[in-house]
Amino acid sequence: MRVLSVMNQKGGVGKTTTTLNLAHALAQKGQRVLAIDLDPQAHLTAGFGIDTRSSSGVDEVLMEGAAISEYRVSVRDKLDLLPAGIRLGEMEHRAEGGARRGWLLKEALSRVRGKDYVLVDCPPSSGILGMNALLASREVLVPVAGDFFSLQGLARLMNIFEHIEGALNQKTDKWVVLTRFHERRRLAREVRDKILAYFPGRVLRTPIRETVSLAESPGFGQTIFEYQGRSNGAEDYLALADDLIKGRVLK
Amino acid sequence: MRVLSVMNQKGGVGKTTTTLNLAHALAQKGQRVLAIDLDPQAHLTAGFGIDTRSSSGVDEVLMEGAAISEYRVSVRDKLDLLPAGIRLGEMEHRAEGGARRGWLLKEALSRVRGKDYVLVDCPPSSGILGMNALLASREVLVPVAGDFFSLQGLARLMNIFEHIEGALNQKTDKWVVLTRFHERRRLAREVRDKILAYFPGRVLRTPIRETVSLAESPGFGQTIFEYQGRSNGAEDYLALADDLIKGRVLK
Ligand SMILES: Nc1ncnc2c1ncn2[C@@H]1O[C@H](COP(=O)(O)OP(=O)(O)OP(=O)(O)O)[C@@H](O)[C@H]1O
Ligand SMILES: Nc1ncnc2c1ncn2[C@@H]1O[C@H](COP(=O)(O)OP(=O)(O)OP(=O)(O)O)[C@@H](O)[C@H]1O
Ligand SMILES: [Mg+2]
Ligand SMILES: [Mg+2]
Known about the structure:
The structure is a homodimer.
Chain A: E1 2-6, H1 15-28, E2 33-37, H2 43-47, H3 58-64, H4 68-71, E3 73-76, E4 79-82, H5 88-93, H6 104-109, E5 117-121, H7 128-136, E6 139-145, H8 148-168, E7 173-179, H9 186-198, H10 212-216, H11 224-227, H12 232-246
Parallel strand pairs in A: 1-5, 1-6, 2-4, 2-5, 6-7
Antiparallel strand pairs in A: 3-4
The structure holds adenosine-5'-triphosphate (2 copies) and magnesium ion (2 copies).
One adenosine-5'-triphosphate sits between chains A (11-17, 39, 43, 124, 179-180, 208, 210-212, 214-215) and B (10-12, 124, 147, 149-150).
């Protein structure tokens, strides 16, 4: 079972869009997938078409010790979702519980069976939720958009990883996904080249191109495959799923 | 002195890009401006060309009670910046201090003189830093990008405001700024129309168009006015500054 956190404390780089569509792409390729919405804003949950005003999910798992099997919902063929849940925001504001609060997700995932991939959508911050994701994951997927602030965010994130992995003596495999990629922008190509220079062998091969249908589909509670199965977005995320399965990277 | 927080817990909607360029636009129009970087990621600070690896700023103000005048730097004519400071991330992780921790920025701003506008760039989350911004501000500027998740973020933010304002019996004036606006996308126009329906009289008149130079300028430590003074980005932010000064909204 591969457990991957989709993580970048920079906002709006496509963490949720990537989790939503990559999860469905993997399921369409026959992988058994569990997607987890770890963002109190519950955008992944909404993207799948689940009503966020009344749902319970990973909030009950982290705060009440519930089993994941109790709250996950089957959202597509071979694809389950553990929704964020309306109480998840409370988790970030609580201070009690001490050091073991960072291990709650890992503990809960240790009881999950019958899954090939677990994808965790993370919020744009580095608080207790991001910590739970990182400690529970053996791999991290870092979406990076093609601009300067994204690049800054990547550098800072790598610092945070070194810090935490050093402290806990735990190593995670990192993959970078180029997102919101404007093929004709010089800035996008410069950012990609910089990332390749710093992370050789870690950039997944397929960049996700900027395509409006990727921004439209969540508004209908659909993944790109239901909304516009022949679009660039669908093509790119299907290829990205292959890259992840086979470890295909840019040279 | 108008104190405005640039706020939206949704990531990547242009909070920093707006604070950077609107602050400079107002200063170019003769207003005396103080910009405050309240995001531990320090992107506003970097956008102005300040070295973020060694700076101190609002971190010292909030955590050590320092005066703003001690750490603000003059970055452009009529424009001061209070940098984030390298310790600002610690603020979000501390739990001591109780309820008065939300009022620290307001207290510090009460000692500021000789400014017409204070713009506070907020992080993409709703923790103690966002609370300080909201309690210190009489007005809020909410950048909203033209897509579904942005719209969700706006609805959620409005809920948070009602909650806090109700609890504290304090009202703030709200302005919406349409950002990253793709004029030809139906999705962008639909989002704009929805916002207008829910917030009549609150949407500032000039949408900020998606223009690559706005994404490029921070990489050079420049605002759009230094980087490409004749671009759409420069034109839009100059017009937005006028909208804000005169209260010009979409009908
Ligand atoms: N490849 C793409 N093409 C077009 N639009 C995209 C693409 N990827 C993401 N978007 C849009 O950009 C916005 C930001 O993406 P998304 O919400 O997935 O980022 P995020 O990193 O999860 O943001 P946050 O930090 O707020 O959680 C969304 O409205 C999304 O629909
Ligand atoms: N109008 C625009 N045209 C082109 N690019 C833009 C525009 N506005 C913002 N961007 C780019 O989009 C990215 C996100 O913008 P920005 O960092 O200002 O958003 P933010 O809301 O401050 O993000 P965060 O939530 O991470 O603080 C940046 O790389 C920025 O350069
Ligand atoms: Mg997200
Ligand atoms: Mg920002």
